[in-house]
Input
Amino acid sequence: MTSSLVVLRTSMLLMLLLATIAGLYVRHVTRLSADAAAQTAAGAAAQAATAAGWQCQTAPPPESVIAAARAAWSQIDHLAVQPVAVEVSADACNLITTVTAAPLDSRVSSLNTTAAACRSAVRTAVLSVPGSC
Output
């Protein structure tokens, strides 16, 4: 009887350890995918925003923000995450794209992760946004 309790307790501990490792792996892969999505989306968003008329204004025109958001969403669709939110803002002649992503088919909001990326609209702009990227 005692040996079966030891086996049961050991197997429960091993299952708990396996679930923890699987959760950490999913969180890590989601973070990597969200970072890749943010970087890809930032490039696409900056290109779309400048094509729509954004020229380093502190408040980009609505059509530039819409074009940037559409470009960002289209870049994220093929990655291994499902996009939850894409925010596009401008600061110091940099376009800041913030992507919130979740693992595919995940219903656990604690696995959502957010990544930010900056992209300069013009080559002469300094790509430095303190506190944003």
The longest strand covers residues 81-91.
